[in-house]
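Quick one from the shared queue. A colleague (R.T.) flagged Putative flap endonuclease-1-like 5' DNA nuclease as missing a structural entry in our internal table.

Convert sequence to structure tokens.
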Amino acid sequence: MLEMIESNQIVLAGIVLLIVFVAWWVFARRSSKPITREYTDVLSEGSAPAARNSALIDAPSAAALVTPPPGVGTMAGIGEVVAFAAAEEVSEATPVAAAPSGGDDLGRIKGVGPKLKALLGSLGVTSYAQIAAWTDEDIARIDAQLGSFAGRATRDNWVEQARLLASGDAAAYEAKFGKI
């Protein structure tokens, strides 16, 4: 047996080193402390910040304080709500001329959809004749009240469309702006 140990000294030394390494690795891992992380949140600091945050969450938004215009509905975007609030402020200062009874279907003007039609109605614009009579100053005043729709009156040429629709010249309208 002694001669077997002498002939395989290198292999035995490797086995001993391997056993020492495994033993060190097992005991080193057992003795080390697990890594703990401390998480902080609102409740770690006490109840005052939690109460403040709850109050901010429960507070009504600015959009909830303004009632949407008639016909726009409760799911109106913030642009429509802000435009309506601005329109109320401006309409108190400079009233728009009253429309003839009944009004026209402003939705026939290219570029005027249901939301914009409702917004124009809330501004007192309900007829082609009103739009046809707009001057550059009127367009600028109305444009300032249209919120996210600002610039549409000029870009879509509402005044010319309204003139043709008010005159009843459907052929000229369709030639220039397409099918009604």
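Residues 23 and 107 are 85 Å apart (CA to CA).
The chain has two domains: 2-31, 67-177.
Added to the table.
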